[in-house]
UniProtKB/TrEMBL annotation:
Descriptive protein name: Fructose-1,6-bisphosphatase class 1
Span of domain Fructose-1-6-bisphosphatase class 1 C-terminal: 197-329
Gene: fbp
Domain Fructose-1-6-bisphosphatase class I N-terminal: 6-192
Keyword Magnesium: yes
SUPFAM superfamilies: Carbohydrate phosphatase (SSF56655)
Length: 338
């Protein structure tokens, strides 16, 4: 079969009425920026891009050099294209306005420029996660409040994994599709269309070192998985944890599985670990469009009304059956308590 490039696929989506011309170009610009980030990450130590940047971000985290480089690449690429009204990043407290010398568009872009950056120095897969919203009509200088739209209003969501291969996964609400970067040609080529995640799975991902801090329903759920076939679930489960959400989610998009970053006593005051706007919402949209589920342990992530640009939530996502069981245990416990 003749390879289908990303731009060809985008034009097909446009002809199908799924996206408009401006969003077509915006995704092209983001994909091109991610190709530049792939080049930077691939250089590693000989490119002088490893290690700390010596600066901190709004999350109170020490920034890696590649956090800063990736953020700048995405800001620069999206400043002059004319598709954006503003953008927001994990690395910046407030939204970035489009310089007055450039035309403004009708979209808002949110991104985690380099997810899993604590893995970069040890050469484990990292990635970029992005979400696209419509800019409210009549708003010329978008503020944080204009980004606070439920995940159901996303026009597009995607991530790029910088691993052995560079892979882009994308949805516009008409299925989830995968593209692999052909480095010789320099183009993303469609490698899987309309991905479906199996409803059942025997593979879970969670940071087990937090176990003693989890809520009782999470203790119960994971305890039953670990009990295996002699336990109430009657089957053995395997565990994986990369500590790069993009890599853990890509494994689930590829062969199924379930991912948890639950609420625990350590992060309770923050509301969770992972951020709603540029981690939970885009990943929930991608997973749901591939036939999976995504909740906070209590409610559907995409139905959440965000309260802040850097708001954090618990995240349960992946194969439907396991997300439903874990969520049921939490609601049941809440019910028993109320
Ligand atoms: P960094 O970007 O700071 O490495 O955090 C990665 C992340 O946000 C997400 O990608 C992982 O799933 C999660 O944090 C890993 O958390 P732990 O460090 O608690 O395992």
């Amino acid at each position: 079969m003749k390879p289908i490039s990303l731009i060809q696929f985008l034009i097909e989506e446009r002809r199908a009425g799924h996206i408009n011309a401006e969003l077509t170009l915006l995704i092209e610009v983001v994909a091109r920026a991610c190709k530049r980030i792939a080049v930077a990450t691939n250089k590693g130590a000989i490119g002088g891009v490893l290690g700390e940047a010596g600066t901190g971000n709004i999350q109170g985290e020490a920034q890696k050099k590649l956090d800063v480089i990736s953020n700048e690449i995405l800001l620069e690429a999206n400043a002059w294209g004319g598709q954006l009204a503003a953008c927001a990043s994990e690395e910046m407290e407030d939204p970035q306005q489009i310089p007055d010398m450039y035309p403004k568009g009708h979209h808002l872009l949110l991104f985690d420029p380099l997810d899993g950056s604590s893995n970069i120095d040890v050469n484990i897969s990292v990635g970029t996660i992005f979400s696209v919203l419509r800019c409210p009509d009549g708003v010329t200088e978008p503020k944080a409040e204009h980004f606070l739209q439920p995940g159901t209003t996303q026009l597009a969501a995607g991530y790029v994994v910088y691993g052995p291969a560079t892979v882009l996964v994308l949805t516009f609400g008409h299925g989830t599709h995968e593209f692999t970067l052909d480095r010789e040609v320099g183009s993303f080529i469609l490698s899987r269309r309309d991905i479906r995640i199996p409803e059942e799975t025997a593979e879970f991902a969670i940071n087990m070192s937090n176990q003693r801090h989890w809520e009782p329903p999470m203790q119960r759920y994971i305890g039953e998985l670990l009990a295996g076939q002699d336990g109430p679930r009657g089957k053995d489960f395997n565990m994986r944890w990369v500590a790069s959400m993009v890599a853990d989610v890509h494994r689930i998009i590829t062969r199924g599985g379930v991912f948890f970053y639950p609420l625990d006593a350590k992060i309770k005051s923050k509301g969770g670990k992972l951020r709603v706007m540029y981690e939970a919402n885009p990943m929930a949209f991608i997973i749901e469009q591939a036939g999976g589920s995504a909740t906070t342990g209590r409610e559907r992530i995409l139905d959440l009304q965000p309260t802040g640009l850097h708001q954090r939530v618990p995240v349960f996502l992946g194969s439907k059956k396991e997300v439903e069981v874990a969520t049921h245990y939490h609601l049941e416990a809440d019910g028993a308590r109320s």
